[in-house]
Amino acid sequence: MKYDVTVIGSGPGGYVAAIRCAQLGLKTAIIERYNTLGGTCLNVGCIPSKALLDSSEHYHNAKDKFEMHGINLKDLEINMPQMIKRKNEVVEQTVGGLDFLMKKNKITVHTGHGSFINKSTISIAKEDGKTEQIETEKVIIATGSKPITPAPFNYDKNRVITSTEALNIDKVPKRMVVIGGGVIGLELGSVYARLGTEVEVVEFMDRIIAGMDKDCSRELMRALKKLGVKFHLKHKVNTVKGLKTKVKIEVQKRDTDTTFELEADYCLVAIGRKPYTDNLGLENIGVELDERGRIKVNEHLETNVSGIYAIGDVIKGMMLAHKAEEEGTFVAETIAGQKPHVDYNLIPGVVYTWPEVAAVGKTEEQLKEAGVPYKSGKFPMKALGRARASTDVEGMVKVLAHKETDEILGVHMVGARAADMIAEAVVAMEFRASAEDISRMSHAHPTYTEAMKEAALAATDNRPIHI
After folding, report:
1. Which H or E run includes 401?
2. How many CB atoms lie within 10 A of CB 229?
3. Is this structure's pTM higher than 0.90?
């Protein structure tokens, strides 16, 4: 079997790359070590976590908000096995869709662990112990990442868990400690907080979602505190000890010798992810890695070995499914001789808590550090009629524009449907719109996106209408 392109890994980056290669007329194969396509994102990441986030939000609204809407309930209870079952059904439907897309695009799927024998020969180790080999002109490595689990945390998949196991807890825990105040920890922590779990977050930095704008960190933390989530900022975890029915965590205040112990039903380790490049045989072909174990690539996302490309979580940059998708398309079109482009500044970041957090472009901190003159316009969601109608009044939209040219440099938002609203900001910045351009666009009333218009008005010449 000889292919024009072989993709190793079938997550969002891998399957999109394979489909685009096939669309461009290249004979394409994809190798996936697991029995289902879709990688971490579809199987144990983005999709199942959003299913649980929605389910927990429905319960939270029924418990805390329905009465104010004039809806009275009694005997409300959580059926956790059904919640998990629905989540699994969503995953199955989504993964099934990928099987259809592979057949539709005539992409050959090989199941097993792929590794390089040489740059044009890949060995595929099957589950039954057998191996097969395929020949290929080009290879796209899209093997993704896995959770970081330091040895002192004693990750046991029982009481000391990662996001993978957190998606399958079939009984609402009484207490949960989350190590890490980043996207994954906060999303899953908020799921269980809404279901009634006492959640405590231990974060080494002085704020949560530290890579995002400070106003976003502040707004989200305020909202999560209302859910009952407790935070230990500027703290680190020394050791985690999982027992049969509980877990003990030793926490130390940063820059001091002060320690204390937390006890919980589960400890969710969410301190980040690392590239998955184990046993790929990269050493057989001389592919270079950087100091963090990521595959080194050039501006065409090609490694130091001609014809071998890498995308997504295995290379530098944000570990985001949609970033991997853009890179998958980019590499496929590059191989086909086209001249594609990815603007990494315009890849949005989203936290799917409720309220949601979304951002694109530069933060205030980055603009200050770079010495770029800017102006800022903010609009609170509580001043928005649509937000009041739905009781989703937490959050804000902030527009950062160049002080002299008025070009939009960054947009940061916290609020209902922020994950969808951010697309307007991406389009605007893609076409290098000014804050005034957005402020003069007609936004339907009443909608959440009116907050974007109001923030743009505030940034243009400080003249929002509704505050």
Report:
1. strand 396-402
2. 25
3. yes
